[in-house]
Every structure is written in structure tokens, then in C-alpha cells.
Specification:
- By secondary structure, the protein is α/β, with parallel strands linked by helices.
- The protein has 2 domains: 44-55 and 279-368, Aspartate Aminotransferase, domain 1 (Alpha-Beta Complex), CATH 3.90.1150.10; 72-276, Aspartate Aminotransferase, domain 2, CATH 3.40.640.10.
- The chain has 15 helices and 12 strands.
- The protein has helices at residues 14-24, 27-31, 57-68, 81-90, 104-116, 132-139, 157-167, 187-196, 208-211, 232-236, 248-257, 265-275, 278-300, 322-331, 357-368, and strands spanning 44-46, 98-102, 122-127, 143-148, 171-175, 200-204, 225-230, 242-246, 306-307, 314-318, 334-338, 349-353.
- The strands form 2 sheets. Strands 2-8-7-6-5-3-4 form a 7-stranded mixed beta sheet, sandwiched between helices. A 5-stranded mixed beta sheet has the order 1-11-12-10-9, sandwiched between helices.
- Helix 3 (57-68) packs antiparallel against helix 12 (265-275), helix 5 (104-116) packs across helix 6 (132-139) and helix 7 (157-167) runs parallel beside helix 8.
- The protein binds pyridoxal-5'-phosphate (PLP).
- The site of pyridoxal-5'-phosphate (PLP) has 13 residues, from helix 5.
Length: 369
């Protein structure tokens, strides 16, 4: 860097810039806030549904070697073939299913939404569910319709099927298990939605490892099913790798919409190594599931707390005053997700990621104070 550069450079008038932004950037974009990511360093992080455990040392040593061998001067392998081969070895995929990779499954939500975004197209999902479905629909200028869950957070299949008949959605999102509720959708309900939907149904299985149920082996059985997954919730949130699986005719179209080189070379080097350590990841998932049970009982025993059944790595908990509790926990060094002020069904609810036993104990101690 040249340290003789001038300290102040010519600068446009701020009011002029603001006026140009206002008349150029779409109203809906200016009206939204950026996705909130709290400062989490030094905190107990129970807000983002990550795996709290680091990878074992032997796996990290292999990662170091794999990363050292990456040719960072070259673009990554465009289709991510080594990653797809490693996923195909690790997953119960049917013969002939195709895969497309994303920079996190967030990117795939954007890709799928863009691919169906004809003028007048509709995206339909239950409510509350993962917020990015709505955000990318807004960005792509497609109509977003939603159907409330039952009060116990199970899917209202009748209402959803009726809304499908009314809206004829090009795309239906079903997160199973759902975020922020934690509940998986029974296969029979998903089959009814598949039978009713005229367009594509994407089952988002971000938390499937914690539920134990998956539609992956059946993905070719239905003409309109794509299953989407991510490595984020099982321990690789920092690597950003999502994938969608389906009939090659669907996946081939989605593949045209993603950015070239969307999955970087470091991620492509790291993922096969981690997937090769399947037992280590499975042990962490088992530990999280065991802690989920313990944490649910302990939270459920606190006065005024109601814990909803969870098939994921987090718990949805109704408390007497969620905003107050979330801010007191933050002051005590613990981050949880406050859902109050979002959907009416999750009034006074917190979403709490299952942490390590020590983190969960710290949470319980702070709550009993
Ligand atoms: C976390 C999450 C995602 C996004 O995960 P990525 O980190 O972008 O892969 C997608 N769907 C659901 C339901 C989630 O909870």
C-alpha cells in the first residue's frame, strides 16, 4: 500500500447521493433492514442454530493440508464435481438424481426463486417459516402468499391445499423441520402438497440430520419435488455450502441461474474432508439430540415456560416476556433469538439453539436467577 495517499479525497454531496439513491433503488429494498447479525464474539451463541462443537483435531489437521494444496490463483472447479461426489457417497441418493451446489442454501433459495419469477408468479409457504423465502420473493418481484400454521405449530394441510388451488403457486416452500418452530412435517402431509401443487415443491431439510427423517431417497418418485439441504446446521456454517437434489430436468435449469464459481475453492477443498469424517459429525449430532431432550425438560420446568416439541437443533420456548428475557440474557453474555414482534403465533417466544452441556447449563443458571 502507498502510505503517501491523500487523507481526504474529493467527495460528492451527501444529500445529492441520498436523493439519487431514493429515486434509483426500489422502494421495497429501501424499506427493509439488512439481515440482523448480532456481534457474537465472546458470547455464548445460542441464536443461530449452529453446531456448538468444533471439528476434532485429526479432521482439522487434514483440513489444513487440504487448504494448503488449494490453487488460490485459479478459479474454483465450476460445477463442484468433487463436492458432489463426496455428497453422493455420504447421502441416501437414488440412482440418477442430480445435484446443484449453492453458497449456502440461502443462495439456492435466491436461485430457485429467480428461476420461477415470471410476471404474476406466486410463491407459497406456511407461516411462520424461514424468512428468506419471503425476502427473495420480494427481491425477485414475485407475489408471496402464506398460510398460518396451527397454534401448536403443525402444518394446516387442508388450508395449504385450499390456498394452492386458489393461488396456483409456481413454487411451494416446506421447511421440514421448520425454522423457527422446530417441527418436522409428516411425509403423508408433504405427499398431499406434492399432489396438489401445479408447480415445484421444495422441501428444505436444513435440520434433517436432527430429525432422522428425509425425503432424499424418494426425491425421484414425484414429478415436482426438489429437496434442499445445507451443511450449516451440522457443523460447517462458516464454509457456506448448500445443495439441492432432484430430477436432472429441474436441477439443470437451476444450475443455469447460479453464479459461475459460486462455491469457492477453499470450501470445495474442505467439504470432502469433513464428509469423510462422517462418524465424528454423527457423534456430534447424537450429542446435540441428547442435550435437546435434557434442555427441553429443564426449560419446561421453569415457571411460565412452555417448550414446543422439536425435531431440530433448537427449541421454541414461550416465556412470560421474551424481549425482556432476551435482553437480560444478552447482558449475561448469552445470545438467543427473540421472535416476539414477528408472527403473532410466536408472540413471547424465544428460539434457543441447543449448545454444549456447559453452555446449556450457563443458560439454565442465568434463567433461574
Ligand atoms: C439456516 C437455514 C437455511 C440457510 O442455511 P445456509 O447457511 O444458507 O445454508 C435454510 N433453510 C432453513 C430452514 C434454515 O433454518
Amino acid at each position: 500500500m502507498n502510505d503517501s495517499r491523500p487523507r481526504s479525497t474529493p467527495r460528492a454531496n451527501d444529500a445529492d447521493v441520498a436523493a439519487r439513491v431514493q429515486r434509483t433503488i426500489r422502494d421495497e429494498i429501501r424499506a427493509t433492514a439488512a439481515y440482523p447479525v448480532p456481534k457474537s464474539s465472546g458470547m455464548i451463541e445460542l441464536h443461530a442454530n449452529e453446531n456448538p462443537w468444533p471439528l476434532p483435531d485429526d479432521v482439522r489437521a487434514k483440513l489444513a493440508a487440504a487448504v494448503a494444496a488449494v490453487r488460490l490463483n485459479r478459479y474454483p472447479e465450476g460445477a463442484g464435481d468433487a463436492v458432489k461426489a463426496a455428497l453422493a457417497r455420504a447421502l441416501p441418493l437414488p440412482e440418477g438424481a442430480a445435484l446443484v451446489l449453492g453458497n449456502g442454501s440461502d443462495e439456492l433459495i435466491q436461485v430457485i426463486t429467480s428461476a420461477i419469477a415470471r410476471p404474476g408468479a406466486c410463491v407459497l409457504a406456511p407461516d411462520p417459516t424461514f424468512v428468506m423465502y419471503r425476502i427473495y420473493a420480494m427481491q425477485a418481484h414475485v407475489r408471496y402468499a402464506s398460510v398460518p400454521l396451527h397454534a401448536d405449530f403443525t402444518l394446516d394441510v387442508e388450508a395449504l391445499v385450499a390456498e394452492i388451488a386458489r393461488q396456483k403457486p409456481a413454487l411451494v416452500w416446506l421447511a421440514s423441520p421448520n425454522n423457527p418452530t422446530g417441527r418436522a412435517i409428516p411425509a403423508a402431509a408433504i405427499e398431499r402438497v406434492l399432489a396438489a401443487a401445479p408447480g415445484l415443491v421444495v422441501v428444505d431439510e436444513a435440520y434433517a440430520d436432527f430429525a432422522g427423517a428425509t425425503l432424499l431417497p424418494r426425491v425421484l418418485e414425484f414429478p415436482n419435488l426438489v429437496v434442499m439441504r445445507t451443511l450449516s446446521k451440522v457443523g460447517l456454517a462458516g464454509a457456506r455450502l448448500g445443495y439441492a437434489v432432484g430430477h436432472p430436468a429441474w436441477i439443470g435449469e437451476l444450475d443455469k441461474v447460479r453464479s459461475p464459481y459460486n462455491v469457492n475453492a477453499l470450501t470445495q477443498a474442505v467439504v470432502p474432508v469433513v464428509l469423510g469424517a462422517a462418524e465424528a459429525l454423527a457423534a456430534q449430532v447424537a450429542a446435540i439430540r441428547a442435550e435437546r431432550g435434557r434442555l427441553a425438560s429443564a426449560l419446561g420446568a421453569l415457571p411460565g415456560f412452555a417448550v414446543s416439541p422439536s425435531d431440530a437443533n433448537f427449541l421454541l420456548v414461550r416465556v412470560p416476556d421474551a424481549p425482556m428475557l432476551a435482553s437480560r440474557l444478552r447482558a449475561a453474555g448469552i445470545l438467543v433469538k427473540n421472535l416476539h414482534g414477528g408472527h403473532p403465533l410466536t408472540a413471547n417466544c424465544l428460539r434457543i439453539t441447543v449448545g454444549t452441556p456447559a453452555e446449556n447449563d450457563a443458560l439454565l443458571a442465568a434463567l433461574t436467577k
